[in-house]
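anyone else get weird line breaks when pasting these?? whatever heres mine. first is seq + tokens for prot A
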Amino acid sequence: MKKKPDFKLWLGIAISAFFLFLLFRKIDFAKLGSAFREMDYRFIPPAILLTFVSYYLRAVRWKYLLLPIKKTRLGNLFPSTLIGYMANNLLPARLGEFVRAYSLGQKEKIGTPAVFASLVVDRLCDGFTILLVLLITFFTIKLPPGMEHIQKGLVTGGYVTFTLYVVVLAFLALLKSRTDWTVGLVTRILASFAPRLAEQVATQLRHFISGILFPNRPREILAVALSSLFIWAAAIWPVDLVLRSFGVTLPITASMFIMVFLVFAVMVPASPGFVGTYHFACVTALSAFELRSEQALSIALVAHGLSFFPVIVAGLYCLWRDKTSLKNISAENDSQSGAPA
């Protein structure tokens, strides 16, 4: 049977191609090459190290989020985190989240839906931490005159993101406190146009909500909060190091400003690895500080490369060590998605 074209994948590739066209259409490649030649590469190793520190801290936070289910080992959590982020860079539709959950579930003998549910809480922690970063940036950033429209757009994005997270939290709260009623409502809505899908979603929601647990001890809650702050500190610092490698010295709030734009960028459908959207967001943020296009694009290319290639190498090594492959995990995902309710 001929496999149907993946519409989401091709749409993402088209969006990425569009943003790449916008970026490169007026670039002077001689000046772009000159920017790379002037780069101080001594800043890159510590930037890579800090990127992996942020992944390790994610594994630490994940350990605390999973405590209500099982006491897990960092020796399993860290490789699964690397594998998940590697998969996000290589696979469409953020399938890395499933890969990450599946990898740890196999190692710790936990059901994949329950592990995946912990990643929803993980993402909510990220969301509220980046909203805090957005708030700090809004009150402390000083943009050059004439760039007020960018700051206004930042505030609008913050409101949209905050609304989105409130809606998600409200749905999860309803699903947790009134599971039967919420699942019934979702089922009735879906059954009107997709009865089979409605049954599958109802089953998956019940499995999923069983994993939505949060640590209730003050020490564990504090650990989740602090690790969230350190995760994003370790993610923002490399941006500052990349700027310095190109001779750009800006306050750390500028790196926070850029990071907020990058977070919004990865929400936009794009090709695997967020090619195009990531670069466009980075260049747009840097334009607020009146950097020339070629220098801004060179910074975006290096920043993206640091978040793309090292974790792919590390994740593939972890997969090889586990004697598995993305193909096998994707096949498992397909079989679970197509399993009858």
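and prot B, same format (seq, then tokens)
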Amino acid sequence: MIVTLTANPSVDRTVTLTEPLRRGQVHRAANVTSQPGGKGVNVARVLTSGGVSALAVLPGTEDDPVVSGLRGAGMAFRAVPTGGAPRTNLTIAEIDGTTTKINEPGHPLRAPELDALAGALAEAAAGASWVVLSGSLPPGVPVDWYARLVGELSATGSARIAVDTSEAPLLALFDEPGSAAPDLIKPNSEELAQLTGLDAVDLENPTAAAQAATSLIEHGVGAVLATLGAAGAVLVTAEGAWFAGAPPIVARSTVGAGDSALAGYLLADLAGLDPADRLRAAVAYGSAATALPGTELPGPADILLEAVMAHPLPDALPKALGDTATS
């Protein structure tokens, strides 16, 4: 079982155009799709499609469109009532794969609702292999809430913890020296730059990204899966660093690509694969999502694992970690 938390679920609405987006002009949509979304929901959807038992924990009411969509898709979920409607995230997809996203802030959560959500998560996490804390936080939620959950879950359970977030909630994971660190984080190049103070453009280079990620390993993170868009991804652990390039695809939409990469990694981990093959699976799933239109997420039939190769990056680890990895 893998449990995902989506604190800020959404209805993901994608409008597909047949021509480039032009500001101030009238466009006619070629296609419009809507799916239950939010990063944790997306991860759970891909995991379920991959044959792994996944439970999505989220705020929601019985009749809101996200909960109804999960129920209609046959997804396992636990919704904690909050009385608010979910946000709508709009993606405008152009024919060349360029996507423009407009994300609403979401319904504010008060302290009692946060406590109920944390309690539901802790209960669901009992006996789980992984707990995934994923996505933005809605208005009113303290920026260190994910950090607190990592500490609480680490102290009370055996599940490994993965975090995929950005900006203040991401930085808060490392604000307190000696605090519990996640077993896995999945930043993109911009988020890795936020954590390390480096330039995001420089971190599009795999070796530079891996070197930057080693500082997070030194802070106690078990593994860093850094996605680099069309370039592929790097994985850094105390055992080593690897890079896998993305296979050649026709990009149609980037919606859910990072979530699919994380799900691919977790599927490979549960299958007992080694770090290099976990990275290959992550890149294969992320690339497959990019090749699909709108809000579609990949399943096993979409994955071209044989087209992805992983290569070690021996120069990425500092000497101290390199000695640990080879000892």
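btw re prot B: The chain has a mean pLDDT of 92. The domain at 2-182 is CATH 3.40.1190.20 (UDP-N-acetylmuramoyl-L-alanine:D-glutamate ligase).
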